[in-house]
Amino acid sequence: QTYAPKLILLDITDISCIGDVAKEILNCYGCVDILINNASMKVKGAVQSISLELDKKIMDANYFGPITLTKAILPNMISRRTGQIVLINSIQGKIGIPFRAAYAASKHAAVGFFDCLRAEMEEFDISVSTVNPTFICSYHRQPAPGNWEASIWK
């Protein structure tokens, strides 16, 4: 069956809204065959110059966001005993480089979670894949001067 596309906006850093978005998707289509987690946020800076608030925002976008969305969709896939979950991650989920500690930590955590999930979902015939590309071109958002998000890349 072919479905008309539907645009559903989601701020992956707003963990509280992810469950409602997943319900909206499932109500609209009945199921999700393939979930591709591809949102990401990165920051460049020395560990001592990055605030704990920004560290948490990076972790929300790169770790808690994808796992929250995955957990919201997963029961539907398990009940149907089919589905594919893909995490588009980063090579920095395997190795850390200087001035990217928060980003690398969030990507390492995501790899660990999805590696465990892969093993757990085998009995339900649900495929879980992690893609760790090398560096990619991203766009840089230029916020107002003095804004702590000045060094965020999305």
UniProtKB/TrEMBL annotation:
Keywords: NAD, NADP, Oxidoreductase, Signal. Transmembrane segments: none annotated. One of its GO terms (molecular function) is oxidoreductase activity, acting on the CH-OH group of donors, NAD or NADP as acceptor. Gene3D superfamilies: NAD(P)-binding Rossmann-like Domain. GO terms for biological process: intracellular calcium ion homeostasis. The keyword Cytoplasm does not apply. The keyword Oxidoreductase applies. It holds the Pfam family adh_short. PANTHER family: DEHYDROGENASE_REDUCTASE SDR FAMILY MEMBER 7C (PTHR44668:SF2), PTHR44668. Belongs to the short-chain dehydrogenases/reductases (SDR) family. This is Dehydrogenase/reductase SDR family member 7C. The lineage of its organism: Eukaryota, Metazoa, Chordata, Craniata, Vertebrata.
